[in-house]
Amino acid sequence: MIRNHRALALAMLAATLLPAGSALAGGEVNIYSYRQEFLIRPLLDAFTKKTGIKANVIFASKGLVDRMKAEGSVSPADILLTVDIGRLTNAVESGVTQPVNSAFLAKQIPPQYRGKSNQWFALTRRARVILASKERVKQDKIRYEELADPKWKGKICIRSGQHVYNLALFAAMIAHLGEEKAKAWLAGLKANLARKPSGNDRNQTKGVYSGICDLAISNTYYMGKMQTNDKKPEQKKWAASVKMLFPNTDGRGTHVNVSGMVLAKYAPHKANAIKLMEYLASDEAQKIYAETNHEYPVSDHVPWSDLVKSWGVFKADDLTLDKVASLRRKASEMVDEVNFNAGPSN
Ligand code: FE
Questions:
Q1: How many angstroms is it from 260 CA to the middle of ligand 1?
Q2: 218 CA from centroid of ligand 1 (Å)
Q3: Residue 322 C-alpha to ligand 1 middle, in angstroms?
Q4: Separation CA 336–CA 166 (nearest Å)
Q5: Residue 142 — left, alpha, or beta (φ > 0 → left; ψ -120 to 50 → alpha)?
């Protein structure tokens, strides 16, 4: 019995390793993904059903761009999926991508959310917002600039200043305020921290719940992850203790970041890869992709999930993410210059 099981398992394994062309007329496409498989599997299955193209995924939490570089022209990768403008532009700068000139992608994806030279494309958006204590924070509006106001002294929780999410926000502040004012702002924010930057975004909301701080800086989808966390129900309490404030929504708009995709420079199945990229940017796929992780679709005309809608409407900053990317290094230097990660005491 056990032997039969093993034989069956081996046969199944062999089947998955066989060249796919034999099984499906549409051929195949290979995806390197920093995004977890549960987020993309429903989309890939729908794509295969539609096109007959088999979608293979290699998931890893790091090292995929290095792997593509090392594999060079024999890399099996067709597409790389990742989050954050920093990681998308890092792939471009590492030389592992090629441009895609697709009228469909240009139609679906607003210009601020794709690379000027068509080397990267966003699929979903997340805003970097302030989760404020319902109990202790009376105001329902805020600006990022205000985070440096001494009235918040000892009241703000945030993760490491060098984390990609914060570097993108700080880079956007440099773009809007100029270097000098942005640096003074960052020093003011540091002086207002309740503790040394540490932990992830959800930890900051936990900080508000526990009374350590009044404001947590967080990406929007973590609110959804906490609100729906049946495995760790304590996170529902953290989420219930805060309200979501979209900074600068009455002005230039709230800072947004993206998840996105690039076409691999040596994509062995280039035509299939472009078909998949266009599918992922379609209304149908964006909606599913965004909903699975409580994000915003990249196209304004694609509806938001009910949970995401419940946080309210907001205006997104239309600063191009190429501009944000170009200032990330400067932002990182500033974080060190103001000694941000040392926290409020020095
Ligand atoms: Fe995240």
A1: 13
A2: 9
A3: 20
A4: 13
A5: beta
What is the structure's pLDDT at 222?
98
CATH code for the domain defined by 127-255+313-342 = 3.40.190.10
Q: How high is the mean pLDDT of the chain?
A: 93
pLDDT of 3 higher than 80: no
How many Å lie between the centroid of ligand 1 and the Cα of residue 83? 8
Whether the pLDDT of residue 135 is over 60: the answer is: yes
Average pLDDT over residues 155-169: 98
Q: What is the distance in A from the centroid of ligand 1 to the CA of 22? A: 38
Tell me the CA–centroid distance for residue 6 and ligand 1, in Å: 38
Q: How far is the CA of 332 from the centre of ligand 1 (A)?
A: 19
The CA 158 to ligand 1 mean position distance, Å, reads 14
The fold of 2-124+257-305 is D-Maltodextrin-Binding Protein; domain 2 (3.40.190)
Q: Which sequence spans correspond to the domains of the chain?
A: 2-124+257-305, 127-255+313-342
Domains 2-124+257-305 and 127-255+313-342 share a fold: yes
Q: pLDDT tens across 18-46, in order?
A: 444 444 568 999 999 999 988 899 999 99
